[in-house]
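ok new one. same drill as before - structure tokens go in, u give me an amino acid for every spot. 286 of them this time. try not to just spam alanines like last time pls lmao
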């Protein structure tokens, strides 16, 4: 029993379960926009379960797919799989259970969510393989998280609307920009390993410029979402705060080497989703 809980703790640490804050607020934001207020508690519960299952499966698959790459990279060699703290077999079981949890939760929402759940799994798991052959891998990761608000909206309404599609696009560019900045840490290794991260292919200067363009597109997308949904000044203020947070990220990297990003880098990104999601709920409640 002690070993079971030890393995579970290692698995949760491996998938960085605390980083779920990046996608979860946008799933709830999509649901709140669709309901024009707070959805039913049952719906919110199964959205939460689905998000936890999807993200757990995606992160564990990423670690499994990248185990050999991580072992060769000094920055990631200490991760659970390359360090031998968790076995590949246990990771595969964890991926399977997480995927079943996701699809089971989707089945409790509505038929369309359940029918599309395999497609969502294909996208979020497939991302882990894309950096082996395309610089578009950053956009695929963005698409993976951009599905969160779409899923939240579908859980409530079972259809699609322009506000959530614009929001999904904004999330796509927000995550892509963040991922480009994150990959600056591994520029030299990725180049030697033949991986297709943007910094390795176009260099750090152009990678930062493209990340800035992604974040500009994201900020505009967040603003347009508010306009389409009629969210008002509270939400507009949250968009302004989020834009400042994105700017601070770029300023942080302009004054320090990106070989090891500070924890504040991740905390700032989590605040973007939290601020926008909270402002959306408050705007509709008021």
């Amino acid at each position: 029993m002690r070993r079971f809980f030890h393995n579970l703790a290692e698995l949760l640490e491996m998938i960085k379960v605390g980083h779920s804050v990046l996608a979860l607020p946008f799933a709830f934001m999509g649901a709140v926009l669709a309901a024009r207020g707070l959805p039913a508690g049952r719906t919110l519960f199964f959205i939460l379960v689905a998000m936890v299952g999807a993200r757990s499966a995606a992160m564990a698959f990423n670690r499994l797919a990248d185990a050999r790459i991580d072992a060769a990279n000094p920055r990631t060699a200490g991760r659970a799989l390359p360090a031998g703290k968790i076995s590949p077999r246990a990771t595969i079981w964890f991926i399977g259970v997480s995927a079943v949890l996701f699809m089971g939760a989707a089945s409790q929402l509505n038929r369309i969510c359940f029918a599309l759940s395999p497609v969502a799994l294909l996208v979020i798991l497939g991302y882990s393989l894309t950096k082996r052959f395309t610089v578009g891998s950053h956009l695929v990761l963005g698409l993976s998280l951009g599905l969160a608000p779409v899923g939240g909206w579908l859980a409530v309404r079972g259809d699609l609307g322009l506000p959530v599609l614009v929001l999904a696009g904004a999330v796509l560019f927000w995550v892509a920009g963040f991922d480009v900045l994150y990959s600056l840490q591994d520029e030299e290794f990725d180049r030697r390993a033949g991986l297709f991260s943007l910094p390795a292919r176009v260099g750090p200067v152009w990678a930062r410029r493209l990340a800035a363009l992604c974040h500009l597109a994201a900020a505009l997308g967040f603003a347009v979402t508010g306009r389409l949904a009629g969210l008002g000044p509270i939400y507009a203020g949250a968009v302004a705060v989020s834009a400042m947070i994105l700017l601070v990220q770029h300023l942080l990297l302009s004054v320090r080497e990106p070989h090891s990003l500070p924890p504040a880098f991740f905390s700032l990104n989590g605040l973007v989703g939290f601020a926008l999601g909270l402002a959306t709920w408050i705007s509709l409640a008021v």
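The mean pLDDT is 90. and btw The two ends are 49 Å apart (CA to CA).
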